Amino acid sequence: MIVSEFERALLTRYPKADAEGWDHVGLSVGDPAAEITGVACALDATEANVRRAQEAGANVLLTHHPIYIKAPEAFCPADSARPQCSAALYEAARCGVSIISLHTNLDRSHEARVCLSKLLGAAPVSSLEHVDDPEATGLGALATLNDSCTLRDLATRAVTAFGSDPRVWGEADHPCRTVAILGGSLGDFGELAIAAGADVVVTGETGYHVAQDLALRGLPVILLGHDRSEEPFVDILMNSAVDAGVDPSHAIKILNPCQWWTVTKGENL
């Protein structure tokens, strides 16, 4: 299989038409005619992950987050004066590693909806974008917990499911049954969650005033961290690569350790 065939198979499954207009999905750098030796799957298209892919014998790096939304002015070796995507693109071209990304088109997929719901012990009902059309693709998930629980219990469940140290807004004993879930940034989807009758929203990140406003209006918020909320999508990328025809032994998963850390009050560093 060559890179262009692989990209075509992926975009058939996750159409560009499902991506946001501002997004950059598909092939960012690389030779479309190159024969694939291996595919490394990761959350982010960083310089370090380009090197990890090459070291693992993979000449394709398949990521969720695109290498850039807006292209940098130049592709150059790492330099603190330039965005990191400049160095990542330079390194990818230098090493002969093609980078393909599936971002908001994957976010809108049924696979993403099912993945996030199952991790919280819930059954997906619909997307948040199209609550009246369960079969339609769309951002986010509206899901029903298999067992009702309190906000505290759901946050504790998220710790294990996402490897996160979540921040929680809301009363600890608030009852939860219907969950709105959105990987990455919440944006204005809190309004859709309220309109859909959700008891709680679980997401990667949002601003202080948004979280405060939603909690005061009766919708608690669990913030997992942007990276933790979407790390499970790397497994979707792996499955998609194999389904597209990549030998499972040549599909490599690059783990992304939590990029945030916290300090407990009184802890000595």
Automatic annotation (TrEMBL):
Q: Where does a divalent metal cation 2 bind?
A: 64
Q: Which residues does the annotation say bind a divalent metal cation 1?
A: 65, 107, 226, 230
- Domain of life of the organism encoding this protein: Bacteria
UniProt key word Metal-binding = yes
Q: Single GO molecular-function term?
A: metal ion binding
Q: Which Pfam families match?
A: DUF34_NIF3
**Alphabetized InterPro entries for the sequence:** DUF34/NIF3 (IPR002678), DUF34/NIF3_sf (IPR036069)
Please provide, in alphabetical order, the Gene Ontology terms of the cellular component aspect for this entry.
cytoplasm
- Keywords from the named record: Metal-binding
**Family per UniProt?**
Belongs to the GTP cyclohydrolase I type 2/NIF3 family.
Q: Which PANTHER family match?
A: GTP CYCLOHYDROLASE 1 TYPE 2 HOMOLOG (PTHR13799:SF14), NGG1 INTERACTING FACTOR 3 (PTHR13799)
Assembly: Homohexamer.
The name under which this protein is listed is GTP cyclohydrolase 1 type 2 homolog
